[in-house]
Specification:
about 260 residues; about 45% helix; binds 4-(N,N-dimethylamino)cinnamoyl-COA
Length: about 260
């Protein structure tokens, strides 16, 4: 049996590839657990500073596996009691290192939700995003109704969730869902390049920055500003802060020690 999740190391970047091409990378237990295990490993590895999650040129992931969810035993009681596909889904969200989703082709349903759990999305020009669950008699269940409006506003999010329509890369970038667009054949290379740049910075600073930006969505402005001030002050306790500023003054490249 082929591995449904592949992981590779490129310099200081951990690359996770969803690998179920025959099913448009539909997300089943094995895929979600495989992604979570890869994240666990990269988080524990001191030589990794940034993680990239990707699929293939046709699909990042076309959603949760419908062939599993359509089974008769998948009734309310089963879904509720087993906390259906919840357990390992949130591992991306809890990653402390930066995570970039590199999306080519379809990112639908749980696939779009997975991409939105990452810190940012770089898209290929053929990317298509959507929450089409309404078409199969259900609704987004892994954050789509919450993260999509925060990313693109209520009007477009409501439109997508209620009609199930797809959004192309250009619209997604204009709406704020996507940070960058690349020609499909350059997506992975360019994403890895950006990830290497990120991974070359001080890891504790990256982690503090990520925490602070995420506060913007989880607290009031004043609370967020207070949190930012505290981690900003904390950064002056890092050797890397002294190194970064000394290197600037000495007109040389900083050598961060991640402490
Ligand atoms: N599940 C299972 N198989 C899928 C699939 C999916 N989501 N999407 C595609 N496939 C399979 C197709 O069945 C087909 O298999 P064969 O017939 O060849 O065996 C193969 O992939 C190729 O697909 P198509 O023949 O359909 O290819 P097309 O190019 O014509 O169309 C498509 C591509 C992506 C537009 C189309 O396949 C499609 O509409 N797929 C379904 C998209 C969808 O409805 N996605 C949302 C699923 S619901 C939760 C977390 C998450 C979720 C829920 C709860 N919790 C944490 C509680 C998420 C739910 C969902 O994502």
């Amino acid at each position: 049996m082929s591995q449904v999740v592949l992981s590779e190391i490129h310099g200081r970047v951990g690359l996770i590839r969803i690998n179920r091409p025959e099913a448009m990378n539909a997300l089943n237990d094995a895929v979600v657990s495989g992604i979570a295990a890869a994240v666990d490993a990269f988080e524990a590895d001191e030589n990794i500073g940034c993680i990239v999650l990707t699929g293939n040129e046709k699909a990042f992931a076309a959603g949760a596996d419908i062939s599993v969810m359509k089974q008769a035993e998948f009734d309310y009681m089963h879904a509720y009691k087993t906390d259906f596909i919840t357990a390992r889904w949130e591992r991306i969200k809890t990653a402390r290192k930066p995570v970039i989703a590199a999306v080519a082709g379809y990112a639908l349903g749980g696939g779009c939700e997975f991409a939105m759990m990452c810190d940012m999305i770089y898209a290929a020009d053929n990317a298509k995003f959507g929450q089409p669950e309404v078409k199969i008699g259900t609704l987004p269940g892994a954050g789509g109704t919450q993260r999509l409006p925060r990313a693109i506003g209520k009007a477009k999010a409501m439109d997508m969730c209620l009609t199930g329509r797809l959004m192309d890369a250009t619209e997604a970038e204009q709406a704020g869902l996507v940070a960058r667009i690349y020609p499909a054949e350059q997506l992975l290379e360019e994403t890895l390049k950006a990830a290497q740049t990120i991974a070359g910075f001080s890891l504790p600073v990256l982690m503090m920055t990520k925490e602070a930006v995420n506060r913007a969505f989880e607290s009031s402005l004043n609370e967020g500003l207070l949190f930012e001030r505290r981690v900003f002050h904390a950064s002056f306790g890092l050797e890397d802060q002294k190194e970064g500023m000394n290197a600037f003054a000495e007109k040389r490249k900083a050598v961060f020690k991640n402490r």
